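User: Show me an example of a complex going from sequences to structure tokens.

Assistant: Sure. Here are the input components:
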Amino acid sequence: MYCKDDFHVERLGECRFDSPLLPLLDYRQHSVNYVEESDRILAENTASSVAHLRETTSELFGLEPAGARRKIFFNPPHTRAGIVTCGGLCPGLNNVIRSLTNELTCRYGIAQVLGFSNGYQGLVERCNRPTVELTPHCVADIHEHGGTILGSSRGDQRPEEIVDYLEKLEIDILFVIGGDGTIRGSMAIADEIAKRDRKIGVIGIPKTIDNDIMFADQSFGFQTALSQGTEAIRAAHVEACGAPNGVGLVKLMGRHSGFIACYASLAVNDANFVLIPEVPFSLEGAHGLLACLKRRLDDAGHAVIVVAEGAGQHLMQSSGKTDASGNSRLGDVGVWLKQQIESHFTSQGKELNLKYIDPSYVIRSVPANPYDSVFCSRLAHNAVHAAMSGRTRMVVSRWHTKFVNVPMSLAIRQRNCVDPNGDLWMTVLESTGQPPRFE
Amino acid sequence: MYCKDDFHVERLGECRFDSPLLPLLDYRQHSVNYVEESDRILAENTASSVAHLRETTSELFGLEPAGARRKIFFNPPHTRAGIVTCGGLCPGLNNVIRSLTNELTCRYGIAQVLGFSNGYQGLVERCNRPTVELTPHCVADIHEHGGTILGSSRGDQRPEEIVDYLEKLEIDILFVIGGDGTIRGSMAIADEIAKRDRKIGVIGIPKTIDNDIMFADQSFGFQTALSQGTEAIRAAHVEACGAPNGVGLVKLMGRHSGFIACYASLAVNDANFVLIPEVPFSLEGAHGLLACLKRRLDDAGHAVIVVAEGAGQHLMQSSGKTDASGNSRLGDVGVWLKQQIESHFTSQGKELNLKYIDPSYVIRSVPANPYDSVFCSRLAHNAVHAAMSGRTRMVVSRWHTKFVNVPMSLAIRQRNCVDPNGDLWMTVLESTGQPPRFE
Amino acid sequence: MYCKDDFHVERLGECRFDSPLLPLLDYRQHSVNYVEESDRILAENTASSVAHLRETTSELFGLEPAGARRKIFFNPPHTRAGIVTCGGLCPGLNNVIRSLTNELTCRYGIAQVLGFSNGYQGLVERCNRPTVELTPHCVADIHEHGGTILGSSRGDQRPEEIVDYLEKLEIDILFVIGGDGTIRGSMAIADEIAKRDRKIGVIGIPKTIDNDIMFADQSFGFQTALSQGTEAIRAAHVEACGAPNGVGLVKLMGRHSGFIACYASLAVNDANFVLIPEVPFSLEGAHGLLACLKRRLDDAGHAVIVVAEGAGQHLMQSSGKTDASGNSRLGDVGVWLKQQIESHFTSQGKELNLKYIDPSYVIRSVPANPYDSVFCSRLAHNAVHAAMSGRTRMVVSRWHTKFVNVPMSLAIRQRNCVDPNGDLWMTVLESTGQPPRFE
Amino acid sequence: MYCKDDFHVERLGECRFDSPLLPLLDYRQHSVNYVEESDRILAENTASSVAHLRETTSELFGLEPAGARRKIFFNPPHTRAGIVTCGGLCPGLNNVIRSLTNELTCRYGIAQVLGFSNGYQGLVERCNRPTVELTPHCVADIHEHGGTILGSSRGDQRPEEIVDYLEKLEIDILFVIGGDGTIRGSMAIADEIAKRDRKIGVIGIPKTIDNDIMFADQSFGFQTALSQGTEAIRAAHVEACGAPNGVGLVKLMGRHSGFIACYASLAVNDANFVLIPEVPFSLEGAHGLLACLKRRLDDAGHAVIVVAEGAGQHLMQSSGKTDASGNSRLGDVGVWLKQQIESHFTSQGKELNLKYIDPSYVIRSVPANPYDSVFCSRLAHNAVHAAMSGRTRMVVSRWHTKFVNVPMSLAIRQRNCVDPNGDLWMTVLESTGQPPRFE
């Protein structure tokens, strides 16, 4: 499935400068063996047996640990960095911007940090979006606000134009905060840079509120988002109990992966049905969702349904369209499900009080919670360490509790999904009591 | 406008029993003059001058102070009370249920408290809704949950059937928690009781998340609701800033009164346009909303609009329908405004990223905040005091910081609205910078 | 008790300038009679009867309504204002600073707003504290933080030195945000100004987290503080339940008035004993606190005690000292009570697990909640209106739900206290079940 | 350091019964290879190189994966379980109790679940503590409250008495939720059970708010606690800024490990000095804490210090005492540090306004946040799976993102500490700017 080269992190060149962090690094007693170039984090942490492991280590791959290096590639006083945020909002964007800025400025002492406005549009000169100089002073409090001070946008721009502008502004390192579409775009930028044989690093900080990135224990903002999601489920439950045959229907994020729906549902235990993209379901039939819902209402008088936005797409007619980020436009499963349920009960002559809640904008626009706040700082620090050491075309991540450098091509090769045969989904089934399949 | 009789609170009969609260009442040093029958709270607290006041006191009316009386009408060991919650959810319903139950049981020692399910449906025997006995034990923690443990429903039932059931269950006091439609219904119940010459008290605790009740400084749940509303406005602001030409549009509660929209907008200062039912507006024209919005986007790149659900009804085609509570069905001004703005900008060929947020269910289903929690307790205690003293066909309220007993007919005579010429709306205009009129 | 002159608000002179708010004021349909000079808010809102009222209006006094006037005293382009915050922290200080700045700058267009650092120290040149120019930009987000961006300090400074500095900096209006000690200090400043026959207005915004100011429905920050206080009581309850014979003891603010203790206790209903300065108590005796506590532990196994910091001072030996603000140094009733209870149970050989919580700094340093946020804005706007119209030696307040101008001498004449014979304390007794007196 | 046997999980005997979860297990497509007995989670996830790994796998050890087995040891209809909570409070205790109860009752259908009161005292008959039958109904809402419905206590009891009582009550499985002292106690219970050759399983769910347990990515309640801790730091910062030479001093939990202090400090970035048990410090000297603090105050006018309760013990005189849990009684570093700093500045004649905040009880008594809530459920489910399969003398944990079964002896062999040479502490140094050592 993987080969060794998949894990290789690209470099711009030899590291010839002493890191300004040496006083901190040297203070460590064991610093002698701190992040040696040959260190690896295992890509897999299970084995059918230790004996088996011993036989198969040829198949075990290692990820490069992230962290500060003693020698760096860029000479700080002559280094300029740029930061851009792309795609939809996610809690923690401002934390990442702030920690990148502080680490680059206060710790590495580089010459300048520029913020580009409105995503990739800001990297194209003719789009005429303002750039702002980012200083520790101007980012001091931004982490207390949701969203991104740089603004965002969807959609790619031509790599040639982007690299023209980077060259014109003499940017040495570009930090790109965005989802898989964005990272694909930044690989094209890195290709164009390579074609021109320039020494500009491109480092990604993967942003996905859906937690669907590979080689990542968890994506930043995910915990904040799931906390917010629980509020919506709680409201749905209260509303469902407040009226005869009350049904609370909540749509949560999750285009391809149902992590937020699963975690938020487990956190409050008020959901009776959880629908995720990874597990197809039927509306009709003796064990279809509608029949199960009717039984639940007959028994308990109320019900809560949590649906991830990417669930049930097989049941709706696709529009065939894509958005500016290249994501296929999903049908709105929440509105569709509301209509299906209402028309079903109407046709059966049964009273129904369905309240539909779509909290997406409120969820994704809150500030990061304390845990995500720390996580964003550590990701950003490691992104800076990687960038200053001349690494490129990679993202920072945390894998099995260690921070790692992951080649972009590896990070986006496939999506992290809820395993329908795994622990998490089994716990959801146990907690909701819903059948393994609606059919 | 008012006459003296408007303020008269009806009584079931003479108070012949000593209050079980006498030990508490007697402890007070000044208890001798505590809530004498002749005490009054002034209905008006302004005067163009004291001299003027002296001349005009013939026009000044007084509300009866609420509170415990030394003599009561009902003999506690032989008294049974019922509680019912009607209409839409509102923070604090469970607090009221809990404090009514505790005061009736622990302080007055009445025989039984029954909770009726699902609003007025629960008061009609053939609807077959369960009744639950409410005890201090079973209500101990309910105030930590939003909604109502009794459930609710919209719509009236025939008063004859209701009084039949009250008689059958030997209910002496009925506590009705609901809005103006509900209170109108309870007046019909009181009429039927009077026609049968029964001694059953009917006491209302006015519930209106919109804060639109007369002779009430503030309705319970209002402060909790406005706090929640600020979260939606904050999200709208973050989303608006996150995309080019971003517009955050938030619909908040307020069928006839824009209090929540005004207060929530003032609390976060992120709103640029506040639209309320009390102040009509135009979309078109050089100073219409659309033109003002375009100017704002040209200047600042983003904008936040807060609209109360009852605003702009004059611009939409009415459906002419009413809901089960008899409220006229409003057009959905949020969705309508979203479409109007989007089609306007599309027709002008301007980019627009509008994010629409409708947080109503999440707002109204949260538990009461600490302030509302105290307020609900005090309202409930005063409702019990009034009921035990034989008062009927009245609601409890707080007026100019004092708790008062208000005849139902007076409480629902008209609505409390935001005064377009008053302090509050002026502060909104000052804070948003929006023009006094869009036209 | 009061005479008419007590309610007279002092003015610097004749109002000769048109208000820049005229466009807003004129928009109002009834603006013709808006805040006429003779308008009054009744100082009292109860009467033993309307008949009685008519006879006694000679004793009824009216407070001047706050609000914008059409004619103002200061010519905005030549007006400079200063703001200072004094004494202990309170939620909402930054909201007040922010709204003063915005109203003075954006609405009245005055020349400059200066912030003085560290309380009255900042008003004395030789203390060498920095002054900062306050602009809408620099105050834009400060309301999201607790505390005060200007810093604070305790203690007065010599009025002569302060007025020297005000004259040197050409300040026309001084806004003073502080408690009764601070307001006393600002009266001395106003005296010195009058002695020099200068036209400098001194306007107070009363700050007291204890809610103990006269002619104020509620002080700003109070609701935020009581919400925070409930968290401490909740924690005390959880801790008390978590150990055998567990006692949770919480000290809350309230030097002279037990409002926070009463409201916070009512909000969560976990307190079994509430001790406030207004109601003396005994430790010893068959009905003393210790005996009651023992009975409670024997019955229920755990107990929660809420004590206001000013309670029980009669039982402790006074240090006789005062702090820099001139407040007498209270004995620490929380620590003292902890020791008394522990030694009592030790001497009786009974197990006791007492957890003592003193949350004061955490309570008073949080940002204002949405309700207080709106309240602070409205207070600040009215303070600016009063100042620009040439009023002085007064504070703004809200009385019976209307904003009013109150002479400083009247505002600090006595303290607002919990009435041991009133509604609030009776509700506390009803909710806790504690005896009316421990003795 | 470890040998293979350290990872061996003890079993009571052969699994002869089909799991009631078979319908869920069988639904899984890959269930055939689900948690085979030989599966292992690697105990270590780093290697200096993959080549090196291959040579050294003899030194790599594997932990047994947790999870449901197809065959179980206990016959559900004849199985009775007990639950006990010991030691100090921690967010999530009620979540664990609730999920244990639900899983045992609803999924495995065992005969009875008993809750023992007040820790190990409840397991000794002569202590006469009540036992409660735990049902899904009675635990339905307990996760919304902090603390533990079972109460707790410190200290061990004689294993003989405990096993006597377990035998008398016919308990088959004992779930023990507690810290390392508690787990040591439960090993003694397991020893006594083995000595009597009884088939009673003893399963631990490790509780440590300090996050100091081995082979655990994170302990339950830790994230909730760190969130609460940030509030105290925020308050300290606001207070420090509010007075001349203001110092905010916060004591946070962490007897042996400074994780909460580190994470909470990183989350808000307001701390200037973080002191943890793992890194000794000096007060005196040119680079001692006092000198650094003075420099900070001279430069910035205010400072925030966060100290873990176990820090600086080398500087205080030990009392030599231990508490009932056998933990050595630490000196109160917060109070001590407050006094040291104050007397230092007094002796230097410098003004100082130090505000000391000790929020421990408030932190540890809150309900679990949504993330911890999910984590507690999953831990509890896995504890039940392990117990039903006959495992004993082990704890459940999560290691490198997988749930695992860890022998008790291994789990308590040493503590998890902040590595002074690791990533986390380096990020703290980078963020605070404090020197690597105070000396």
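The lines above are the inputs; the final block is the predicted structure for all four components together. Chain C has 13 helices and 18 strands.
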